[in-house]
Here is the input.
Amino acid sequence: MPARTSWIPYALIAPSVIFLAALFLVPLVQTVWLSVSAGDGLSLENYRRMAGDLNFALAVKNTFLLTLVVVPLQVVLALAMATMVTKLDKGRDLVLWVLTIPLGISDLAAGLAWLALLQNTGYLNSALYALGLIQGPVGWLSQETPVALFFAIVLAELWRATAIVLVILIAGLQLIPKEFAEAAEIFGARPWTRFTRITLPLLKPSLQSALILRTVLAFEVFAVVYALGGRNFPVLAGEAYVWQNDNQNYGVAAAYAVLIMAISLAATAVYLRVLRTRPEQLP
Amino acid sequence: MADIVIDRVVKEFGSFRALQEVSLTVNDGEFVALLGPSGCGKTTLLRIIAGLETQTSGRVVIGGQDVSDLAPRKRGLAMVFQNYAVFPHMTVFENVAFGLRMQKASQADVKRKVERAAALLHIESYLDRYPAKLSGGQRQRVAVARALAVEPAVLLMDEPLSNLDALLRLEMRTELKAVLREAGTTTIYVTHDQTEAMGLADRIAVMYGGKIDQIGSPLEIYATPATRFVGGFIGSPPMNFIKVACSGGTARIGEAALPCPMAGKDLELGLRGEDAALSPNGSGIPFDVRVVEPMGSHLLLTGAIDGQLARIVAPPTAKVNAGERVGLNVDPSRVTWIDGSTGRAIARA
Here is the structure.
């Protein structure tokens, strides 16, 4: 019996393995290969060109800055929203549905929607003008207003991608039996203590998943930034795009791609280590 | 230490009335069991006392203080949950210490009280382990130790033994009784298991359909049930109810006659299986035996009295065969008369 059935699991999982291998592993190896080949042999020339580029340091700084501001804000917002949503009795599904609408919108479309709001002739300026707060169109997204541009991008990213954290955290909160919070309440814990001493530690596995997912995606941020700021706010993925399409230099573009991957892997490793739940502490 | 007064507490969930004007007084240091089938409202009542649920109307008074509108943490009580609710991310020590930490007790105080509670429940050797490494019975002990560590005035327990296997349940029951007697804590204990309630409680409140049918000592509840429900719910086998006709103060069943109260038309004779004795000569109430089950400590006879189902307990050595008709002698002082139209017992003369 075991001999006859042993190949079945492998056969069943083969299509997805082959699919992933063909469309993920192969391009991955190709990209790495592309990034380290220049002229006739192996070289780090592409990385040297990448690092020597004017925009490189700025792109690294911007990408990290954006990630460091957006991801923690998203987690805090999502935690607050998830806690409130799980407390609702009526209309919970409707509220959750509304909150997750941005998930259904592509990031470029989201960027364009925010561009429509924030550009010189956008809705924000029209509203401010109608209220008499400004005399004429104000540029929020130009090179001269880097702070406003940064906050516009942060705002758009918060709007666009907080919901994925929310969904993961709500699923996680629902896995925590309500008796834990009740027991804590009986034994004298105030709401904030219950949250920090009971809910947060028990939510750690979900927080870990949400953080890994959001951080990896934040390092790849591109479409929203491109729509709102173009190259006024260089980011790593945007630079990869420019080198690939405008400069037609696939090698440097590949170097950027490998760098983004390395950063994402490092971040994931950090999360796996810092937020690990020891097996004996699982419910 | 504190007494608990539950004053006309009503709880409605939408249009469903889970509790209908329940009143109950628990004396200082007393152990009261709320006993009833699932859905009778016993857990809801306990959660209202704890403050985890808000009553629709009525008051809860603990130690003379109206706590109806107070948060659970301000009520000075501890609770043991059905599934223990032992925090998985804390060691046993931190679990037991949780309430003390919330009270901002000093480190030395925490250590002393945790160690005392741990010793009481025999969990000293697992204090540095995590709950996932413990068995159900050990987690149960942690939950009880956590509750006792804060030296609560009132201890609430919600079916604390129902997740344990039968043998462990018996062992924990005995131990719990000893521990709680020593602590002298006022305790309300919710259970659907009559043997638990009988074994542990000073008094039992039998709940049914959102109200308390009867409050009394285990023996009172057993011997003189106030309603047909209580008689049928308590005791194994349950009390037998035989419809009889009563005329002139005497009920006749076959040859036998029993003095009966003159009340109502639908009179039922409530008879405990062990309150009937096999008569040596076949006289008395005729009983048609259909099934004989030797249970070791006794014989369980299932059959019919006057065509109505009855279960009788006979000595293990009695010679009774299925299909036989035997006679039962019944002590009139030990029977309960039920008014069939209301389901309530008729007051004894």
Q: What stands out?
A: Helices of chain B lie at 42-50, 92-102, 107-120, 136-149, 166-183, 194-200, 218-223, 228-233.
